[in-house]
Amino acid sequence: MRIAQALLVGLCVVGVAAAAFAALRADQSARSVAAAAREVRAGAKEFADAKREIIDALTPPEEAQAVTRRSPPAARQAVRVSRVVDGDTVDVGEVRYRIAELDAPELRGARCQAERFLGEHARARLEALIAGARVVEVAPTGEVHEARRGYPERLFARLYVDGQDVNDVLIREHLAQPWRDGPGWCNGLG
Which of 30, 135, 143, 167 is exposed most, by the fewest CB atoms within 10 A? Predict the structure, then answer.
């Protein structure tokens, strides 16, 4: 989202500067310069209002912005991940772990193309984190994600690569969000 905000700010600055330059080139008189300045101020306000609307639309509600809740501490176990299923699920041998308190976009059952695209990137990033790590650890929370149609039972756990919580990395890179019940990844994306 920060990239989108930076692009919007850049567009605003470029648009305001272009309008001012065009007005100055059209007529160099003091009167037209004052009029151009008024137009530039009005245009800058319109850009600022549009930017604010877009940022508000992209920002989740306050309760959804909460920092990832930490599970009670559990003993970490060094593991060898045999498969990355998606951005928030890994297999360790015969055991499937669902990364606790993390919501990554779905691959299977994605509700829109944007979710599937982000889901592929989340999985690839998690694979890269695990492949590049010297140590991968899980800290089971004791919770079980019940089996449902087409999905096996999964154990909830925190996942760490070289001591770093994977949740923090994926959330910071906008490839996942803290777990919450809500509209999901396709809200407004179609």
Answer: 30
Question: Per the structure block, which two tokens stand in for 116?
Answer: 């599937």
If one compares 23 and 77, the residue with the highest pLDDT of the two is: 77
Q: What is the DSSP letter of 151?
A: B
End-to-end CA distance of the chain: 18
pTM of the model: 0.59
- Whether the Cβ atoms of residue 136 and residue 99 lie closer than 8 Å to each other: no
Share of the chain above pLDDT 90, in %: 37
How big is the CA angle at 127 (ends 94 and 88), to the nearest 5 degrees?
A: 65
Q: Cα-flanking dihedrals φ and ψ of residue 141, to 5°? A: -90, -15
* Arithmetic mean of pLDDT, 64-73: 45
Q: What angle do CA 159, 162, 166 make, to 5 degrees?
A: 35
**Around Cβ 134, how many Cβ atoms within 10 Å?**
7
